[in-house]
Design goal:
Blueprint (H helix, E strand, L loop, with lengths): L4 H13 L21 E5 L2 E4 L4 E3 L15 H13 L8 H13 L5 E5 L2 H16 L3 E5 L25 E4 L4 H11 L3 E6 L15 H14 L2 E6 L20 H4 L4 E4 L45 E5 L15
Parallel strand pairs: 5-6, 5-7, 7-8, 8-9
Antiparallel strand pairs: 1-2, 2-3, 4-10, 9-10
The structure holds pyridoxal-5'-phosphate.
The site of pyridoxal-5'-phosphate (PLP) has 13 residues, from α4.
Length: about 325
């Protein structure tokens, strides 16, 4: 007989010791009453809640789980790295190897930076945008989620007007709204955060129109501002490069001028497997067929709490941060 008594008991205990019983997007508060809050184990595509009920995990752990739970090659790589050293005083060689792999893989990337989560990655992109030309204004699409930091979190509680003083909202996929926001930023426009596709919770998802995507690219070029594509949710799913490079929205030629592509969902890195396990027609770049498993999980610890993020920076348009190594 189906039951959720263990889950309900845990929820009651959690209420006493954790804000709201669970906080952030993993809270099931807005979901149907019987939706499980706590899970016991997972394998492949399946999840079991604390009452032993089995589910197919269409959520893929909110995205990071590209290869399924307990994937043998991924687990072996994580174990091997943990055995070498976990949370060491400094980074391991894996960090350099992984940065090389990303720079080789993402065609517009000159640099890769690693962060412990997506919020850190988007915050770093914000800093890059402002540092680039010493400007302040940043455009964010209304409703688009970029993390839980005062400058971008969806709810206002806990942030001040000063935190968002230089954030200008605009309506996603709306050329007039974009133009008005750009005018408002005037000559202080640091960057525009673009969301690869509309993916807010509780609303329909859709790709941006081609005119809109081209306009964002054009405005950034004209104003010498950074186009930041927050690929934390979509990275490596819609395209190996930036998500917009896979859609008819922007030509590859213009895309190579991207300034900052924020990616995430790296808890279990696809690069940890020695070959691509995706079904055809997967077009893996050669770098993904390397035989040596690469594992970056030892940078901070083999079990990051949630999706780690990384950002790829195209330094040609980011001259203030240009490095000496020529692009190949
Ligand atoms: C598009 C997008 N950007 C940024 C974030 C923040 O990532 P994290 O929760 O790892 O801080 C998320 C998280 O869901 C996201 O969906």
């Amino acid at each position: 007989m189906w039951t959720n008594t263990q889950d309900k008991a845990l929820q009651a205990r959690a209420q006493r010791v954790m804000p709201g019983g669970m906080y952030g997007h993993e809270s099931t508060r807005l979901l149907p009453a019987d939706f499980p809050q706590f899970f016991q184990r997972a394998q492949g595509t399946r999840l079991w809640d604390v009452d032993g009920n089995e589910y197919i995990d269409y959520m893929c752990a909110f995205g990071p789980n590209l290869l399924g739970y307990g994937h043998e090659a991924v687990e072996a790589a994580a174990r091997a790295q943990a055995h070498r050293g976990d949370t060491m005083t400094g980074p391991s060689d894996a960090m350099v190897r992984l940065a090389e792999l990303f720079v080789d893989t993402v065609s517009h990337a000159d640099w890769a930076m690693f962060c412990k989560n997506g919020t850190d990655a988007t915050a770093m992109a914000l800093v890059c945008a402002r540092a680039h030309r010493q400007r302040r204004k940043v455009l964010l699409a209304q409703g688009a989620y970029h993390g839980a930091a005062p400058w971008c979190m969806p709810q206002a509680a806990g942030s001040t007007p000063e935190d968002r003083a230089h954030i200008i909202p605009f309506r996603y996929n709306d050329l007039d709204s974009l133009a008005a926001a750009v005018e408002l930023a005037d000559n202080d426009l640091a960057g525009i955060f673009a969301t690869p596709f509309r993916h807010e919770a509780f609303s329909d998802q859709y790709l941006p129109g081609a005119d809109y995507a081209r306009a964002v690219r054009r405005v950034c070029d004209e104003r010498d501002a950074l186009l930041v594509v927050d690929d934390v949710r979509a990275g490596f799913r819609m395209a190996r490069d930036c998500s917009w490079s896979a859609t008819p929205t922007t030509s590859n030629a213009s895309w190579t001028r991207v300034s900052c592509c924020v990616m995430g969902c790296m808890r279990k890195l696809p690069a940890t497997v020695s070959r691509c396990v995706r079904p055809a027609p997967c077009r893996c770049p050669r770098s993904f067929s390397r035989t040596t498993p690469i594992c970056a999980l030892g940078m901070h610890g083999p079990r990051l709490p949630y999706a780690a993020g990384f950002i790829c920076i195209h330094t040609t348009t980011c001259s203030s941060m240009r490095r000496s190594r020529p692009r190949t």
